[in-house]
Design a protein that fits this description.
The protein is α+β, with helices and mostly antiparallel strands. It contains six helices and six strands, in the order H-H-E-E-E-H-H-E-E-H-H-E. Strands 4-5-3-6 form a four-stranded antiparallel β-sheet. It has a two-stranded antiparallel ribbon with strand order 1-2.
């Protein structure tokens, strides 16, 4: 039995495209009694441009509780078209803050991701009475 990233499944943002890391193991040869993998043959994929965006907002940034929940709802409505383009999103929200840890866009540059995020940002701006803008969200691109 082997453990670690490969043996444990190997979950990532890109699992939907490339599968889990364990799905890409072609062969295990031997694992010593102390857990050292002596040989593992894995499938590899070519490097690909991938961009990621992160941002957050709070009730006070949205202009109030009603505007905050309207903005959270707008984000959810705008998420499906992004996912249909092959993007992946990781986010969470509470009664006071929404944090988008990442919208990852395989095959896209930072400029094309920023362009793809314009409709969701426009919806956030509209639902928050213009309180939430692309600038006020403090989006970070990587």
């Amino acid at each position: 039995m082997a453990g670690g990233y490969l043996g444990g499944g190997g979950h990532s943002y890109l699992s939907g495209i490339y599968g889990f890391a364990a799905d890409n193991v072609l062969e295990w040869e031997i694992v010593t009694a102390d857990g050292v993998v002596l040989s593992a043959t894995v499938r590899v994929f070519p490097n690909e441009v991938t961009s990621n965006a992160a941002f957050s907002f709070s009730v006070s940034q949205a202009g109030g509780v009603e505007q905050y929940w309207n903005a959270v709802s707008a984000y959810h409505q705008q998420l499906k078209p992004l996912l249909d383009q092959g993007m992946v999103a990781d986010y969470g929200f509470t009664n006071g803050t929404m944090v988008v840890n990442g919208v990852m866009a395989p095959g896209q540059t930072n400029d094309s991701l920023q362009s793809s995020l314009q409709p969701p940002f426009d919806a956030l701006t509209a639902k928050s009475c213009s309180q939430l803008t692309a600038k006020s969200l403090g989006m970070k691109l990587a």
